[in-house]
User: Fold this.
Amino acid sequence: MPSSGWSRSPTSSPACALGWLIGLLAEQRAVTYFQPIYTADGRLFAHECLLRGLERDGRTLISPAVLYGAAAAGDLLFHLDRFARLLAIRSGAGLGRLFINFTPTAIYNPAFCLRSTVEAVHAAGIPPADVVFEVVESHRVQDVGHLVRILETYRAAGFAVALDDFGEGYSSLNLLDRVRPDYLKLDMQLVRGVDANPYRATILRRIVAMARDLGIRTLAEGIETEAELAAVRDAGVDFVQGFLLGRPAARPAPGSAAAAA
Assistant:
């Protein structure tokens, strides 16, 4: 099993990042970690797929921030993002519903770029309805039209879509009408300490109510305390996720956090 410590791999220059990341991708030195997602009443609902790189020792983990930083520096975002999606699909086959992250800026032509992803889902025997593609850093989306075309491609293949970090900044609200996601993941900064912050609690309740009116299911992420869990439940969220309920793991144990939920 990989160690819990993070590596600090070299990304100081574009040339260094390029060679280092090309080597990692060529050798497929990465693993998918799975973090459980539960219904508000404690039933296992899905797993979110999270990319972790591996050093050549096969044990030391490389954080996604380092991986994507190197990819941006070396103009390899498309290659890393595609690699992460395909690895998540292969690794997650048989686990049930999967939330798979993707970066919109890494996809330049949806019909072409996503063909291998759709084929991988079918090859893995995963029902398309069990796959949710999650827009990472949705609050930074600049070209909404491009994002809509990507999501139309996913939906045409039978997949659901989610927006992450909802509630960070004002741009998230502007995306709702254009994107019309199936799931909203409420930003962890909105969830953190919500039990002790009446303003934050009111905002969260209003977002959940608005989503319900629009037929969108809500997921509160980043839950670390029992009090936060109770508060988001009281607000009416549909799903919950966080270290209190289950940490990311390479070999998930379904139902292991049901008591905590």
Notes: Residues 30-52+75-240 form a domain with the TIM Barrel fold (CATH 3.20.20.450). DSSP finds ten helices and nine strands in the chain. Residues 78 and 106 are 4 Å apart (CA to CA). The chain has one domain: 30-52+75-240.
